[in-house]
Amino acid sequence: KQWYQRRVRGNDIYVGYSTGHVRHFLMSSCTSTSGRTKYQVRYLDEMIGSSKRMVSIIIVAPTIARIIGLAENHVFVGDMFSMVGAQSYGRSTPKSVTFMSVNESSSSYDLEIAVCLNRKKTVQLMLVTAERFIVKQEITNLQNVPQKVLWHGSVLVLAYDSYYSVYNLMSRTEMELFPYNPTTTSSLIKTLQEGEIYMNADGLGMIINETGDVCRPPIAWVNQPKFVCYSNPYIIGISQTAIQVYSLLDQQLKQKSGFNDACAVTHFAGNVYVVTEEQVYMLLPIPAEEQVERLLDSGHLDQAMQLADETLGALTRSTVKINKLKLLRQRAAHIYWERGQLEEAFSYFTKTQTPPTEVYMLYDTLTESSTAKISVAGLEAERQLLYHVMLLQFISKSGIRTEDLNTQEFKLVSLVEPTKTSSFCGRSVQWT
Fold it and tell me: What is the DSSP letter of 248?
């Protein structure tokens, strides 16, 4: 039996087949004596969604304990645990459906979906409860018959036979976006993160916001993907022959692996699941903290901090993530300092609220204790002066009186009194 669609929710895996069956598997993991994580999958039950019809879409709604499937224009509903068909939906079930997708931006307890109807310039927006389907809105003034639709907030993104458009549900107006060649490019619409929507174009991956404006530079795919998934900040494209990982931060290819005959893909909790006709593969992302550490180790500081800010600093309330981000930024600040990139170093000292006394002591360690001069290895006098000035500025912002900070080698004076001088490299320097 050929697998055509699957969905993962937690440890529950649902696989749709060309025979119309949907099977429920349970995935578990354990740690071996060698410390490696092992995964096991156990078959639980199955249901017949639609006899001898290929299952092309499966949607899992855990809040109402339902699975909704699409098999050759036929919509079916079952209990996600007992795998028994739900009979209560009856006449409320939509008919002649060619495509359906979830409103991932919805905050509703029940499920919200958008469906395309066969040979009609119509999209229905529906609420799926534990008992029935409810039509919330029907859009009948579309430009053409849509092949695919994505419902995101107050807009619909539509794929027609050769171009995309965005439809505003508030103003009931539609705007054409850009074309694609259906003979070489399969239409694809996917929500990446809040306010960002991906679409396949000819050789490119286009990313727009809810107004239809391009909000990021396009992804220049090596191989045009049939499926995409998002694992912040990476977009994973799966083509017929390869898996490609691009970063949305710089739109560059980060990893490419050969992979043949993928027929479905989905993701949950950061993991990506790829299905072939015989097996299911789980792609485990390297933890963001480890990625940042590797970039720091290899000297790619700017990339490391950009990745850290995106994955650990974006609206997080996790104390663990906040503390981890602080430690990574402090480490970056010290590396920037050692490189002589003072502006970047002081920027991260400020972000991490590093006490000025610690920065002052760090500065003091760069001096040669055998002399009365400030001698930073390899730096010319002007660069040494910049060190001194920026350190004074940093300390003055902290509210600590610089005249209270002393070492055996030199004494710092306040910048707010420019008439004073300070001993610097054996000479008198006037602060201006």
Answer: T
